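Hi P.,

Sorry for the delay on this. The queue was packed all week, but I finally got your sequence through. Input first:
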Amino acid sequence: MSDHASDFVLQAISFDTLEGWKDDDPSGLFEVMRSCRRQITDVKPYRTGSLGLSSEDLLPLLADAEDFTPSSPASARAFFETHCRPFLIRRKDGNSGFVTAFYEPDIDVSARPDEIFRFPFYRRPDDLIDLHDANRPAELDKAYAFGRLHEGRVTAYPDRCAIDQGFLEGRGLEIAWAKSKVDVFFVHVQGAARLRYEDGRIGRITYAAKAGHAFSAIGKLLIDRGEIDRAEISMQAIRVWLARNPERVDEVLWHNRSYIFFRDAPVADSRAGPIAAAKVPLLAGRSLAVDRMIHTFGFPFFIRAESLTHLDQGRPFRRLMLALDTGSAIVGPARGDIFTGSGDMAGEGAGTVRNDADFTILIPNAAAGRFD
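Then the structure:
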């Protein structure tokens, strides 16, 4: 799926026909919307995706949400019904949308390496540069957003295999060390983690940059090799396979050449979610990672996934969410990643989400006229 608008259409619908809408309670979104408004007005607007919706299009909605406190689920829904119009995202290839989920792992770490804590989380190296059309070498695909500047020459940055084998050692880039290479790998996939130090201190890291290589799903690799049945694939199933095949761990993990660098991400309220790409704390169950080449952060999406039932006590997943994050595996107009929260329970919920879903974007009234 490319990021071109010709691959999909927006179909105007009504809230009355939006299945599941009348049972949802989006009251928790208003605090997050206030945070988005502060980010846009006080720091900088979000980048406009190819759909053409901008932070400026979003601001009237956020301004009206500033002083609004819903008195009930119905009043929260009425706010959106008054200020927005719903548009179903329809892919022209006829396929439905698709959701997965992510979470913020809790990882035991040490501030110093030893025989047990041997696997580092790295900060962004100083020879990693952002690439754009003016400085990207001809031999590097346009998908490379980062590269290495060394002795005046720009090249691809070393990949996961090279970094795991010591490319960055001795440069003082380590934030902390974990006990498991597999744990570190899955933090790379999730893009954030809470770090539990031996002295009881709690730290937080979040995505800072990546080496630039394309993300390659190791789950797909294991399916293609016949190691795990497609119907059984999940984060948990992958972890079980890796634990049973320790001699093949490096080979499988190195298949995903993508490598993530982190930064410390202190949060004043430890109960708040991690700060992700939209630079506001994620709200569990209400935050969505989207393809930022197409979509713009801060916009509301109603996600309906009839087959996804384990996140809502057996009921189909039907919730209004805000687009607040992105990820290299999140590609396409109706592709999303649901944030389930922090810790092991959230990980259990996230690891098995692979479901067809309908994506309906709510567009503020003034901008909605452009899409009729």
